[in-house]
Amino acid sequence: MIGWLKSIVQTSALAAARARAAYVQGTRQGATTTVDPATIGTEHGPSSTLAKQLALVIDLNVCVGCQACVTSCKEWNTSGAAGPLVDENAYGANPTGTFFNRVQTYEAGVFPQTETIHFPKSCLHCEEPPCVPVCPTGASYKRAEDGIVLVDYDKCIGCKYCAWACPYGAREIDEERQVMTKCTLCVDRIYDEKLARADRQPACVMACPTGARLFGDVRDPDSEVSKAIRERGGYPLMPEWETKPANQYLPRRTTTAVGTTTPMPSARDTS
Fold it and tell me: 115-152 pLDDT, tens per residue?
């Protein structure tokens, strides 16, 4: 994690907020034992000890921006353990809505050498998630068994600290419940033994018509996702933030526009 964020996390104000939250929680539950504020949000173990890290790998070369991943994610989660995901004034002047996954579309290059880039983005389930240590109640946490970053709605107070800490804009407030929401990698689906093994994948992966979304354990060198990252130049989003995103992207191939000899820009061009 970058230095300035570490200093924010370690301020006395945050420590005091954690202490107050721990005290209130213990009082409400009639606890007779004390809670160490320094352990809030870290009880699931440091990421360096994780043997397994589930994640998504997105192939930008074949994503067509169809929004199937967005709609399937919304449908599954709004009717599942994470829902309901409320939309307010969906067709009004100031609409609000809760989505775990969004696809951003933009153009790259200068006319006539331009191309359209479709960029899916959701929680990246970072190995060093800045949203976890800033949470004053311990609602945000990273699971030791699979590395998934989740929110405990019963503990969340909707303070939005996690949204401010996340450099990827991956957290959204549910306006009705006033709790923070985010991608769960469909944790209620991938472990559901009532589903066929082939169906135990995130809804977005199942819905993608082009196979642009891969799911698996990036800590396993023999997994499909690890091979894709290794063999096709997979890369994390904004590595300069030092959050070590688990989700990775496969770059677009450089192509040449019809009737020109100038290569089209790739999704990773920064010029």
Answer: 889 999 999 999 999 999 999 999 999 999 999 999 99
* Residue pair 33/131 in contact by the 8 Å Cβ criterion: no
The share of the chain scoring above pLDDT 90, in percent, equals 59
Q: Which uninterrupted H or E stretch holds 249?
A: strand 248-250
Tokens of 69: 């991943």
Name the residue among 203, 222, 227, 223 with its Cα closest to residue 213: 203
CA separation for the pair 142, 244 (Å, rounded): 13
* Rounded CA separation 98/191 (Å): 24
Beta pairing partners, 140: 151
* Three-state secondary structure call for residue 244: coil
Pairwise CA distance, residues 5 & 140, whole Å:
17
Beta carbons within 8 Å of 188's beta carbon, 6+ residues apart: 80, 81, 82
Alpha helices in 79-216 (DSSP H): 161-165, 187-190, 203-207
pLDDT digits (tens, 9 = 90+) for 209-237: 999 999 999 999 999 999 999 999 999 99
- Sequence-ordered alpha helix ranges (H) in the chain: 3-9, 12-28, 68-78, 161-165, 187-190, 203-207, 224-232
Instruction: Report pTM.
Output: 0.77
Closest residue by Cα to residue 65 from 125, 111, 115, 123: 115
H/E element, 173? strand 172-174
Report whether 137 contacts 160 (CB < 8 A): no
Span 55-66, average pLDDT:
96
